């Protein structure tokens, strides 16, 4: 087992597209045990069947042997709802990949601080929420954030931003909160590299590097949806047009990246893109 990155086992919270992808690359590339937890048993079932499907595809394409695929699958265990996040007690790092909701994330990180060992690295896969705000909640109740204990507890929080689809996309953006220690950053970096990713480091600014650069493409509205997407695909070799992509992602809430009126109106109309079938385009699946 590779433990060069000092992470001997990882916990993943959230078995959606992102969490499942993160669990898969951790098991397959970093080759470490993965504990997967989601409050929805249905979501876990879907996640595990996606893992099976992706591993089977790699076997059928000759990239993995049956044995390698089975070993990777066997490294993933599920923590049931009766145990909850207490099941992460023995891992060296947890990666939170739940929906983009600040108060949900704050309550999760506060539970992490209460339930897990003080040296466990606490990573978040957020694409749009301040890591510093999340880190501020990773402090045991009643502890002053400016005390040595408070600073130490928050110093193990880091942003570990994977891209969708995780097994395919080669980048992980690492984000340092104001409180993050150098050691946390380096261990998280080593883990991402062991998981087969290239790493860039961003400051804790709205959108980090990736979405800060992406959002202007989505927001400009200078032509028809097809012409904007075709311009970026054929003129700049983007694999997917930005408006196609916009139908699958969530943006940041910072005023510098205020959504265009059209985007606001689409949300008012409850057209959420791929999520419910209508956005810049229509989706039948
Ligand atoms: N999960 C895992 N693998 C997937 C997948 C998924 N959801 N979707 C596609 N793939 C794999 C396919 O299995 C295939 O693998 P193979 O080479 O082993 O057969 C490979 O990707 C290529 O798939 P296809 O040939 O079917 O289709 P495409 O050529 O259209 O490629 C794509 C699919 C790679 C997803 C391509 O459309 C693409 O690069 N899209 C842009 C993705 C992107 O920009 N992601 C970033 C989103 S922003 C983000 O995540 C940040 C967030 O914070 C907002």
Automatic annotation (TrEMBL):
The record marks 161 as: Important for catalytic activity. Residues 207-247, 252-283 form the 3-hydroxyacyl-CoA dehydrogenase C-terminal domain. GO terms for molecular function: NAD+ binding; oxidoreductase activity, acting on the CH-OH group of donors, NAD or NADP as acceptor. It comes from the Eukaryota. Residues 10-204 form the 3-hydroxyacyl-CoA dehydrogenase NAD binding domain. NAD(+) binds at residues 14-19, 38, 100, 105, 127, 164, 275. The keyword NAD applies. Signal peptide: none annotated. Pfam families: 3HCDH, 3HCDH_N. Keywords: NAD, Oxidoreductase. GO terms for biological process: fatty acid metabolic process. InterPro entries: 3-OHacyl-CoA_DH (IPR022694), 3-OHacyl-CoA_DH_NAD-bd (IPR006176), 3HC_DH_C (IPR006108), 6-PGluconate_DH-like_C_sf (IPR008927), 6PGD_dom2 (IPR013328), NAD(P)-bd_dom_sf (IPR036291). Pathway: Lipid metabolism; fatty acid beta-oxidation. Belongs to the 3-hydroxyacyl-CoA dehydrogenase family. This is 3-hydroxyacyl-CoA dehydrogenase. It comes from Gymnopilus junonius (Spectacular rustgill mushroom).
């Amino acid at each position: 087992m590779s433990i060069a990155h000092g992470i001997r086992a990882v916990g993943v919270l959230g078995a959606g597209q992102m969490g499942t992808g993160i669990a898969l690359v951790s098991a397959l590339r970093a080759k470490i045990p993965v504990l997967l937890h989601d409050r929805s048993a249905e979501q876990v079932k879907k996640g595990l069947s996606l893992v099976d499907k992706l591993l089977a595809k790699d076997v059928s394409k000759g990239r993995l042997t049956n044995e390698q695929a089975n070993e990777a699958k066997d490294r993933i265990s599920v923590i049931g709802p009766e145990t909850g996040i207490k099941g992460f007690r023995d891992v060296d790092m947890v990666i939170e990949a739940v929906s983009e909701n600040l108060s949900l994330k704050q309550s999760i990180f506060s539970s992490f601080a209460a339930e897990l060992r003080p040296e466990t690295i606490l990573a978040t896969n957020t694409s749009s929420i301040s890591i510093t705000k999340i880190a501020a909640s990773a402090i045991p109740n009643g502890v002053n954030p400016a005390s040595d204990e408070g600073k130490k507890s928050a110093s193990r929080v880091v942003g570990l931003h994977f891209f969708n689809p995780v097994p395919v996309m080669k980048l992980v953006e690492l984000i340092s909160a104001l409180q993050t220690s150098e050691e946390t950053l380096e261990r998280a970096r080593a883990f991402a590299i062991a998981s087969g990713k290239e790493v860039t480091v961003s400051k804790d600014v709205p959108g980090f590097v990736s979405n800060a650069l992406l959002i202007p493409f989505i927001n400009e509205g200078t032509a028809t949806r097809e012409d904007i997407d075709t311009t970026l695909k054929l003129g700049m070799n983007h694999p997917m047009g930005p408006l196609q992509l916009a139908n699958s992602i969530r943006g940041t809430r910072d005023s510098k990246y205020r959504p265009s009126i059209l985007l606001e109106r689409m949300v008012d109309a409850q057209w959420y893109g791929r999520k419910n079938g209508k956005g810049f385009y229509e989706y039948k699946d």
